[in-house]
Write a structure and sequence with these properties.
With 891 residues, the protein is of the alpha/beta class. It contains 26 helices and 29 strands. The radius of gyration is 36 Å and the shape is globular.
């Protein structure tokens, strides 16, 4: 494709541009990263989205930020390599596929492992394809030839190789422990995959009769009466005088009719409940520890789906937890062993993926010893090899690493990396990347592989280097790994600081000897305008494609980054995209004007480049815009280097909109039209204008790639085929003192022009009528920009310290000035009108303030009504301020 025409449409239409530009970028492989020893690499590996569902606004923000960094550093001349990919997300994807199959009447267990995996791969092709499509639509400049997937053959070999290496090094072992069990997925899950929710429940107070003394009993309060079948003791505090004489005796577990010992343990809280604790080692973490101290053994009463197993009375076997609870309570009531049921609220652990209460379940699992790995992660931040932004997350980092537990890496699932452990009939274990042909100890050829798969994070912790086929690289891949690893930054949310970030640091330092990235940048969460988490169930989950179709991709990108303040969540509202859409059109229209102006005065836009800009300009208007340009360059560089992305977006927005489009274009119009057309001054002015515009396009391109590319190409026409604005150098202005005087004087000029225009509006003065402005300053104070001021404001300027009669008094910075009102303005009548308006507005303010000061209104009225009142108050206060300003101007 080519851009042979420099003609601009009247308005910018993203829908007619974006797909074409993506094809153009792909056609010329602008984003393909090729090693170059003479250039510095800049590498990012994308946090691979889970192939569980469509992407949300958090993904849009995260990937826009990464794209800003990649495009920025590409423009600095570095070899920018952004590696894309997706995560198989073992437990989450399996849950989704299982639900999808169930909706079709297909049972996962009935079809078996291999058939289920075929469905899972089909899911991956569908959802994974949609994810990539959304990312490409967002305009992100990944090297798509390097796209990775955590369950691809090459990546899988890296995962299995790491597991085998850790096993051989003594870090991986099998152990029987109490785990978090998800009955829905029938798999162990990590602590981080458990959501704690407060729910209504009961404390059931149950009598445990003392063996041999049925007149006496211990009363145990529990929220889980159905687990009494697994009781192996009742514990009391050794210093509790109420029960000291019963320590060592036995009580009868009701319904189960088993005798268990009364034991003393300091873990029991004397003042909580009855001071008696039923000890169920196989189904509660505290009880597990108590049971271990007293060598009670274990009694698991649950099946994998959390129904009761064959270790309970026949009448209870196969019942769900909830049904068993009801039946136990009913039987306790019948036998008189239930003292009372006390309503209460308590915290229940809920499986993040399965959305059901977890069970504490005794199970043999694979673990990784974490003590040495925690030291590796500690050292990365303490040595400053790794910097976390915002820095306050380092305290959380330190706390978690200090209190780390061994990592359970096995999952009872089918979708994932199957654990490479093989057992023969005699129980000998062989751990090998490739399936062994025979047992290494006895030669048995009948080996069975462990049915479990690895925790998702036990694959993605290798992501920064496994994307290069690190286990079995070609010479090319090895060279890439040496050149592009370690990466520069990882951009993600703080919710996975332990799941993923810490573990990647551990893996990078252990397997590669280097911290995998230099910086971690944590974005905030993207919430709705009410501060709620976005979810489909709340109806506040926006459709990305509809947003892009309505506003354009650049507008969406701008709306997200412009609100991104380090360490803060974003309250995102679709209306914020309107700012970005209007901004893109403003830039488009200014560019259209300047290209047309270039044709008018005889300047070829295709031959104009900011690289040829002469920074030393004696012309005050040109000196001013170059000083503004120098400042926005400096501010933008500092913002990107410090990860202050909203500072970058605001700096470019203010420069392009408020300086370049609003003022500079207006300032130079008199030099373009009429007698000035074609003069050396007009050509020099338009040339500088196009150079600053081209520099502005380069500067803004990382954030708004589509509109900047389209404008840049149209400025160059056919001469820029095969080129991209994103490959043009971002260069700081030459060192030297800024023209502070030009800035200060121009600030005064802009303020006076704005003030005069407001006076015209307030008093209905025709815009074509020339007004007299008297400046209270030494004669010549504004001489440098006098012609500009008189032309823009349609005024004649004089100097005097005394206020003329019939004049409005205003101030521009430290300069006081007066606008003489024409005879058509009745000053006294205008004063009266303004006073009446002010009185009405002040009444409205009192009314709304009264509402907002009432708790019954702020807490009782719907949130949108309260928010509306606050908005009304803000508008009224602004109106009051403006009216007071106008009244004050009249003296």
């Amino acid at each position: 494709m080519s851009f042979e025409s420099t003609e601009f449409a009247k308005t910018y239409e993203p829908s007619q541009v974006e797909a074409r530009l993506r094809s153009y970028w792909d056609e010329h492989a602008f984003f393909k990263a090729t090693r170059d020893p003479s250039r510095e690499p800049y590498t990012i590996v994308i946090p691979p989205p889970n192939i569980t569902s469509d992407l949300h606004m958090g993904h849009m923000l995260n990937n826009t930020v990464q794209d800003v960094l990649i495009r920025w550093n590409r423009a600095l001349g570095k070899v920018s390599c952004w590696i894309p990919g997706t995560d198989h997300a073992s437990i989450a994807t399996e849950a989704q596929v299982t639900k999808a199959l169930a909706a079709k009447g297909i049972d996962k267990r009935a079809i078996g492992r291999e058939a289920f995996l075929e469905h899972a791969w089909e899911w991956k092709r569908d959802v994974g394809g949609r994810i990539v499509n959304v990312l490409k639509t967002l305009g992100i400049s990944c090297d798509w030839s390097r796209e990775a997937f955590t369950l691809s053959p090459d990546y899988s070999r890296a995962v299995l190789s790491a597991f085998v290496q850790l096993y051989n090094e003594g870090y991986v072992y099998r152990g029987t422990r109490l785990v978090n069990w998800c009955p829905f997925s029938q798999s162990v899950i990590s602590d981080e995959e458990v959501d704690n929710e407060e729910r209504a429940g009961h404390f059931w107070h149950i009598h445990y009769k003392v063996e041999g003394d049925p007149a006496r009993s211990l009363v145990v309060a529990t929220t889980r009466p159905e687990t009494l079948f697994g009781d192996l003791a009742v514990a009391v505090h050794p210093d509790d005088e109420r029960y000291r004489d019963l320590i060592g005796k036995k009580v009868i577990v009701p319904v189960a009719n088993r005798a268990v010992p009364v034991i003393a343990d300091t873990a029991v809280e004397k003042d909580f409940g009855t001071g008696c604790l039923k000890v169920t080692p196989s189904h509660d973490p505290t009880d597990f520890e108590i049971g271990a101290r007293h060598k009670l053994g274990h009694l698991n009463i649950m099946n994998k789906d959390a129904s009761l197993n064959d270790k309970v009375p026949l009448a209870y076997q196969g019942l769900s937890r909830e049904a068993a609870r009801e039946k136990v309570v009913a039987e306790l009531k019948e036998t008189g062993l239930l003292e009372k049921a006390e309503p209460m609220r308590h915290v229940v652990g809920i499986s993040e993926r399965g959305k059901v209460p977890i069970e504490y379940y005794l199970s043999e699992q694979w673990y990784v010893r974490m003590e040495d790995f925690a030291k590796l992660a500690h050292d990365a931040t303490r040595s400053k090899e790794l910097t976390i932004v915002p820095a306050y997350w380092e305290k959380t980092w330190e706390h978690w690493l200090t209190n780390i537990k061994d990592w359970c890496v096995s999952r009872q699932l089918w979708w994932g990396h199957r654990i490479p452990a093989y057992t023969c009939a005699k129980g000998h274990l062989t751990v090998s990347v490739d399936a062994p042909s025979a047992c290494k100890e006895c030669g048995d050829t009948q080996l069975s592989q462990d049915p479990d798969v690895l925790d998702t994070w036990a694959s993605s912790w290798l992501w920064p280097f496994a994307v290069h086929n690190s286990a079995n690289p070609t010479a090319e891949q090895k060279a890439d790994l040496d050149y592009f690893y370690p990466t520069d930054v990882i951009v993600t949310g703080p919710d996975i600081i332990f799941f993923w970030i810490a573990r990647m640091v551990m893996a990078g330092r252990h397997f590669r000897g280097k911290t995998p990235f230099h910086h971690v940048y944590f974005t905030g969460l993207v919430r709705d305008k009410q501060g709620r988490k976005m979810s489909k169930s709340l109806g506040n989950f926006p459709d990305t494609f509809k947003i892009i179709e309505k506003y354009g991709t650049d507008a969406l990108r701008f709306s997200l980054v412009n609100q991104l303040v380090t360490g803060q969540d974003i309250k995102w509202d679709e209306n914020s995209c309107e700012i970005g859409k209007t901004f893109a059109n403003k830039l488009w229209n200014a560019s259209r004007f300047l290209v047309m102006a270039a044709e008018l005065v005889g300047v070829d836009p295709s031959k104009v480049s900011v690289d040829k800009l002469d920074w030393n300009q004696s012309d005050p208007v040109l000196a001013w815009i170059l000083t503004e340009y120098k400042q926005v360059l400096s501010r933008s560089f500092k913002a990107i280097e410090s990860y202050e992305f909203s500072d970058y977006s605001k700096a470019t927005y203010e420069f392009v909109w408020m300086r370049l489009c609003d003022w500079f274009v207006e300032l130079i119009k008199p030099r373009i039209y009429g007698e000035a057309t074609g003069t050396p001054e007009s050509k020099a002015t338009v040339t500088v204008a196009l150079q600053v515009l081209e520099g502005g396009l380069r500067l803004l391109h990382p954030l708004m790639p589509y509109v900047t590319e389209e404008i840049w190409q149209r400025m160059g026409g056919s001469t820029r085929v095969g080129q991209s604005v994103g490959l043009q150098a971002l260069v700081l202005a030459p060192q030297g003192k800024a023209d502070e005087a030009a800035l200060a004087e121009m600030d005064v000029i802009r303020s006076i022009v704005t003030g005069v225009r407001k006076i015209r509006g307030d008093f209905s003065i025709h815009p074509g009528e020339t007004l007299q402005v008297v400046v209270d300053a030494p004669a010549g104070r504004l001489e440098r920009f006098l012609v500009v001021l008189e032309a823009l404001a349609k005024v004649k300027v004089g100097y005097a310290s005394k206020k003329p009669s019939r004049a409005a008094s205003l101030a521009a910075g430290d300069v006081r000035y007066f606008v003489v009102l024409p005879e058509t303005v009745d000053v006294e009548a205008e004063r009266g009108k303004i006073a009446k308006k002010l009185e009405k507005v002040e009444g409205n303010i009192r009314l709304v303030e009264g509402k907002l000061s009432s708790d019954s209104f702020t807490k009782g009225a719907p949130e949108h009504v309260v928010e509306g009142a606050r908005s009304q108050l803000a508008q009224n206060l602004l109106e009051k301020s403006l009216l007071e300003e106008t009244l004050s101007a009249l003296g």
